[in-house]
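About this split. The held-out portion is used to measure sequence recovery: a designer receives only the C-alpha cells and must propose an amino acid at every position. Recovery is the fraction of positions where the proposal matches the reference. Here is one held-out target exactly as it appears in the evaluation file.
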C-alpha cells in the first residue's frame, strides 16, 4: 500500500530483549459520584489510552462460535476487494476523519475529558484529523436530524451501568470504513460501545455493531486498551489534498506526484 504509517510506541512498553519497568500500583481514580474516572487526576501519573492495531475484526469477535463477520453478500464482495487491493482507497489515508470503531482500533492516543457540570464526556483522539467525540450524559435521545444529516463521528449519548460507560452512537455518514481492511459502514450504522476500567492501566473496550445495511445480524468485538503513562495528545492537522508532506524526503504519500 502506498501510504504513510505512523506508529506510536507507548511509554514504558517492553523493549526488545528486556522487560518493561515495574509500574506503580495506582488505584482507579473516581469521580465525585463514585463512577470511574477514565482519565487521570494526579499529573504525576498522567497519560492516555492506546490501542494495538486491529485490522480485521474477525479475530476480535467475542462469540467464538461465529465464523467470521456476518457480511451481506454485497458487503463481503466489497470487503474482499478492499482487502485484496491492500486497502489503497482507505479514507483515512486521504485525511478523512475516522469515527466509531475505526477511531478506537488504531494506535493513536485517546483521552477522556470529564465535564460533569455540563453532563457530557469528550473523547479526544491523537490523529491527523483532530478528532473528538461528544458523549451526552444528560439522558437526551438522538434527535431526528442526526439521521437526516449524518456526520463523521455520529451522535453519541451515554450512561453508566455500574462501573461501565455505555455509549450509543448513530447518525454516521458512509464516507469512512469501520476497519482498516474495509468493513462497511452505512447510514444505518449503530454502535453500542462499552468502556470498563479494569485497573489503572487497562481499559476494556467492547462494541456491538448493528448495521442492517451491510450485515445480517448484530455482532460484537472487543479488546483491551493500555494506559500510556506520561503521554500527552499532540496537535496534528491533516486536510484533504494536503501537499505539505511532499516536502519531506523518503515518504510515500497517497496521491503524491
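Reference sequence for scoring:
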Amino acid at each position: 500500500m502506498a501510504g504513510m504509517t505512523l506508529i506510536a510506541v507507548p511509554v514504558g512498553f517492553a523493549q526488545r530483549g528486556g522487560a518493561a519497568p515495574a509500574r506503580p500500583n495506582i488505584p482507579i481514580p473516581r469521580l465525585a459520584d463514585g463512577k470511574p474516572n477514565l482519565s487521570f487526576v494526579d499529573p504525576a501519573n498522567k497519560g492516555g489510552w492506546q490501542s494495538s492495531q486491529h485490522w480485521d475484526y474477525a479475530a476480535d469477535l467475542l462469540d467464538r462460535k461465529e465464523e467470521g463477520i456476518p457480511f451481506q453478500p454485497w458487503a463481503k464482495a466489497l470487503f474482499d476487494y478492499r482487502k485484496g487491493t491492500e486497502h489503497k482507497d482507505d479514507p483515512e489515508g486521504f485525511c478523512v476523519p475516522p469515527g466509531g470503531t475505526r477511531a478506537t482500533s488504531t494506535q493513536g492516543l485517546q483521552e477522556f475529558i470529564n465535564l460533569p457540570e455540563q453532563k457530557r464526556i469528550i473523547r479526544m483522539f491523537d490523529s491527523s484529523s483532530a478528532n473528538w467525540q461528544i458523549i451526552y450524559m444528560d439522558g437526551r435521545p438522538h434527535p431526528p436530524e442526526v439521521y437526516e444529516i449524518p456526520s463523521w463521528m455520529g451522535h453519541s449519548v451515554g450512561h453508566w451501568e455500574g462501573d461501565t460507560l455505555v455509549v450509543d452512537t448513530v447518525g454516521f455518514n458512509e464516507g469512512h470504513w469501520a476497519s482498516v481492511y474495509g468493513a462497511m459502514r452505512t447510514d444505518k450504522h449503530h454502535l453500542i460501545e462499552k468502556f470498563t476500567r479494569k485497573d489503572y492501566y487497562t481499559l476494556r473496550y467492547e462494541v456491538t455493531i448493528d448495521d442492517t445495511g451491510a450485515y445480517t445480524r448484530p455482532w460484537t468485538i472487543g479488546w483491551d486498551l493500555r494506559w500510556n503513562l506520561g503521554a500527552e495528545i499532540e496537535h496534528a492537522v491533516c486536510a484533504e489534498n494536503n501537499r505539505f508532506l511532499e516536502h519531506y524526503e523518503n515518504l510515500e504519500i497517497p496521491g503524491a506526484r
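Annotator remark: The chain has one domain: 48-247.
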